[in-house]
Amino acid sequence: MKLNWDVTIHKFAHIFWQHKNRDLTLNQKAILCNTFITSKLWFVGSIISYTFIENTGNPPYLLNVPSTYPCIKQIANEIAYIPLSYKQESSAKKIYRIAHEQLPLPTIVIKEPNLKWSGIWRNINNNTLSSSESSTYYALVSNKIPYKEKLHEWKIVNNPRCDLCGKIETLRHKIKECHRIEPLYIMMMKIMNENNLHCPSLDELLRPTLQGVNKLKRIGTMKIFIRYIELVTSQSASLHMSLDTLRLHLV
């Protein structure tokens, strides 16, 4: 344990120390952790956990895990129910399949079951999108982009009204329907048209199946849209930028 888990924890503590002076948002910190830290910790923890599973059965007798390693105990508990048949002839593909089958469906998939979600997730996870772009698009599709109506429902803000126009701020209002934002949205669509890209409706952009659109146009459209979303949801966004200025942000 000391030569594996403790050493790994020490390395990541050093990584955190290196980044502590960076001016990162909460979302950026989460991306940093998910990209460089959590997957490695889970991998090391799962390898160590298998020692307890093999020695004590499946599921393991978790009291055998030292109390000084609560994370290892949690990981051992999570991976304990991989069938023995998978363990005997294990492969990454088999373990991934059973782990994937045990995951609950995302809430948005349950709410909108008639959409072709496999295509939506495939587009969002396309490797030509950056990690940040994919993460932002996933948050958008999953309805996790903050807007006043939701924040008010969660009692985070005092009222659900748009700061720009006073109407109820839904997600659609925040990114298009507010009369102060709509000119930027229109310019975004113009930029898509200038670049000979697909110019879909807002509904198609929010649920990007984009069927029948070739890959280059599909990804180009998604890139411009998600950069637009990042721009209009940032606190530093200017509502009076010109078409040329917006083009610099999006293309």
TrEMBL record:
<dbReference type="InterPro" id="IPR026960">
    <property type="entry name" value="RVT-Znf"/>
</dbReference>
<dbReference type="Pfam" id="PF13966">
    <property type="entry name" value="zf-RVT"/>
</dbReference>
<feature type="domain" description="Reverse transcriptase zinc-binding">
    <location>
        <begin position="117"/>
        <end position="179"/>
    </location>
</feature>
<protein>
    <submittedName>
        <fullName>Zf-RVT domain-containing protein</fullName>
    </submittedName>
</protein>
